[in-house]
Amino acid sequence: MYWTLELASKLEDAPWPATKDELIDYAVRSGAPLEVLENLQEIEDEGDVYESIEDIWPDYPSKDDFLWNDDEY
Question: Which InterPro entries does the annotation name (predicted)?
Answer without folding.
Answer: DUF2795 (IPR021527)
